[in-house]
Amino acid sequence: MKQKPTLKIIAKELDVSVSTVSKALRDSKEISEDTKQKVRAFAKLYNYKPNNIALSLKNRKTKTLGVIIPEIVHHFFTTVISGIENYANQRGYNVIVGLSDESFDREVLNLEMLANGSIDGFIISLAKETLQKKDYHHLIETIDQGIPIVMFDRVLDEISCDKVVVDDVETSGKAVQKLIDSGAKNIAIITTEDYVSVGRLRTEGYQQTLVKNGITPSENLILRIDDQFNSDDLLGHLENQMDQFIKTKQIDAIFAVNELYAITAMKAARHLGFRIPEDLQVIGFTDGVLSKHAYPPLTTVSQHGKEMGKQAAELLIDRLEKETDQQDDHYRTVIVKTDIIERETTQAVD
Amino acid sequence: MKQKPTLKIIAKELDVSVSTVSKALRDSKEISEDTKQKVRAFAKLYNYKPNNIALSLKNRKTKTLGVIIPEIVHHFFTTVISGIENYANQRGYNVIVGLSDESFDREVLNLEMLANGSIDGFIISLAKETLQKKDYHHLIETIDQGIPIVMFDRVLDEISCDKVVVDDVETSGKAVQKLIDSGAKNIAIITTEDYVSVGRLRTEGYQQTLVKNGITPSENLILRIDDQFNSDDLLGHLENQMDQFIKTKQIDAIFAVNELYAITAMKAARHLGFRIPEDLQVIGFTDGVLSKHAYPPLTTVSQHGKEMGKQAAELLIDRLEKETDQQDDHYRTVIVKTDIIERETTQAVD
DNA sequence: CTGAAAGCGCTAACAG
DNA sequence: CTGTTAGCGCTTTCAG
């Protein structure tokens, strides 16, 4: 087992001082070419690499980003992470991941663990429980300590910080418009409880677009799923609710606020004898593996998770590397555009 | 912006020495109850938390694990990570994620970045390119430096370290046996090139099981996919190959070595007019979202990724926390059991 | 019971 | 051109 070389060891070996070695390796002009040569050769030979921890302590920055998400077994978050990682790596940052599991306590814990020097800043998408409790003290405190936060997807108006979002209202408007243009008359929405901001906004976009097209939105056609406490048989539970819903309403199109809802609705509808898209058109939100491989392949609006991740990382790193210390203001929120990916669950527009 | 308190600050504020504060907070018996009280109160008030980086430097351990995987947008890896995270957190460790993107260079880079003090040990699943090049110097070097590695899924016999795997031969045997028991006569396998060890082993299990049942394996019924350089239109490319394959052979069952292959094969077969499972049974490896929501829902063998992650983390942390320094031997490889999850692409056994 | 000092690995200001 | 010193935040002897 080879001991990792340190400056000290190299210094002793070469019979010079530690600072000489340090300077030589950083190519300081204070050092003679001769010694530089010598030091560099030795360093290469022993494969010297500076110790990150020591550097972090010295520089008071770790060059690592903390990413906290509710769930990693989830296509969207996964694409966001890969966007973050990629960009962060390019700029010399590492990524450390914390999972909240949708739990407030675990979110707080993760934040605290990492805030004690392990990371320079956070990228976070909030847990459902946090959204519900409306307890944001942990976020406020970390920002207060000078650790910047970038929120994405599930963001908060109440907290001022950089944000990356999709224009949920507009996007779901797009989706609903597509449905209308394809001939749908009775469009239902399957969404989340309103405390999930994205769910609320998407519902809003749905309603606005109906109005804009001269259709009166009906509470009747809104199915709000509360899936939080049903993780054991979530799927069966979902399918049941949807079955009931689809059976009892007179609908010819469904806009589902996420992929799972869309797929499950399709499944329920198929069991009820609906042909898709002839009898019932379906459009989902968030493009993932499921949509692409569903039967039939699902038309969705794509959130471009990778791009969101990249943007979030960029906002964060830019802020971290900004000189000025009085940067409490000028927070930016970038809106990532969305696209409708037409597959086979919607009708062509004539 | 509140300044994070340090021992120094508390010490000055309370007019005692830094070491007194440190000891008081760690409840040393060298300190009087009185001062302890005082210090603790102050610390709580200002929400003092020791700086992780300083601790890391001092203790020469970071309490964080480096996890390097080829791909994060991938259900299996995602479940593994969540298994690692969960267990690691319980034992007070953080997880830092590196993505190799199946590239050798990025794998090496990630390893090197993290090996310089950022982490205490690695959990890794190798990139395809690494497997192909058979260049393992980076692994050997990091182990040599005393940084333990746990490999999972894509592991190497050539490297001695802890490992977590599924018994690929046995498991794919199970799958094939299931197919035989369900009446299949001509069973094809869709697998990867042999340099991917799991692919090779699964092929082996397939062949052995055929032989055991008195069937002579035929190279003819093996489709080896090389998907490495086709990421642009991977899907179309895959489907084409499978279409050709299914069309020209006389088969009534397919064992696919991963989820995507299984789904795509099903799609191709459906287009060719096969009914599933009546005309063609299909069974996949790796249980993911795709399988569950496929049409029809796919019978698969589940790899229990979460369990694998947990086991890997446990092996690693146990090794890290072992006292003894002469631990070059006694590497363990734990084999996580697999299960067949019967859904609707296989026939019931009479 | 408390504090001064050394050291983890590194950098940088300042002497020499 | 090279070395000494101090310090990042913390723990831990070792004196007092």
Q: Output the radius of gyration of chain A.
A: 26 Å
Tell me the domain tally of chain A. 3
CATH superfamily caption of the largest domain in chain A: Response regulator
Question: Secondary-structure element order of chain A, as H and E?
Answer: HHHHEHEHEHHEEHEHEHEHEHEHEE
CATH topology of the largest domain in chain A: Rossmann fold
Strand percentage of chain A? 15-25%
How are the strands ordered across the major sheet of chain A? 2-1-3-4-5-11
Largest sheet of chain A: 6 strands, parallel
Helices and strands in order:
Two copies of one chain form a homodimer.
Chain A: H1 7-14, H2 18-25, H3 33-45, H4 52-59, E1 64-69, H5 75-90, E2 94-99, H6 104-115, E3 121-124, H7 128-133, H8 137-144, E4 149-152, E5 162-166, H9 168-181, E6 187-192, H10 197-212, E7 222-225, H11 234-248, E8 253-256, H12 259-271, E9 281-285, H13 289-293, E10 299-302, H14 305-321, E11 333-336, E12 339-341
Chain A binds a DNA duplex (16 and 16 nucleotides) through helix 2 and helix 4.
List descriptors.
homodimer; 350 residues; alpha/beta; 6-stranded parallel beta sheet; 6-stranded mixed beta sheet; 14 helices; 12 strands; 16% strand; DNA-binding
Structural account:
Two copies of one chain form a homodimer. With 350 residues, the first copy, chain A, is α/β, with parallel strands linked by helices. Chain A has three domains: 7-50, no CATH class; 57-165 and 306-335, 3-Layer(aba) Sandwich (Rossmann fold); 168-302, Response regulator (Rossmann fold, 3-Layer(aba) Sandwich). Helix content of chain A is 45%, strand content 16%. Chain A is built from 14 helices and twelve strands. Chain A has helices spanning 7-14, 18-25, 33-45, 52-59, 75-90, 104-115, 128-133, 137-144, 168-181, 197-212, 234-248, 259-271, 289-293, 305-321, and strands spanning 64-69, 94-99, 121-124, 149-152, 162-166, 187-192, 222-225, 253-256, 281-285, 299-302, 333-336, 339-341. A six-stranded parallel beta sheet of chain A has the order 2-1-3-4-5-11, sandwiched between helices. In chain A, helix 13 links the parallel strand 9 (281-285) and strand 10. In chain A, helix 5 (75-90) packs parallel to helix 14. The longest helix of chain A has 17 residues, at 305-321. The termini of chain A are far apart. At the A-B interface, helix 4, helix 5, strand 2, helix 6 and helix 13 of A face helix 4, helix 5, strand 2, helix 6 and helix 13 of B. The first copy, chain A, binds a DNA duplex (16 and 16 nucleotides) through helix 2 and helix 4.
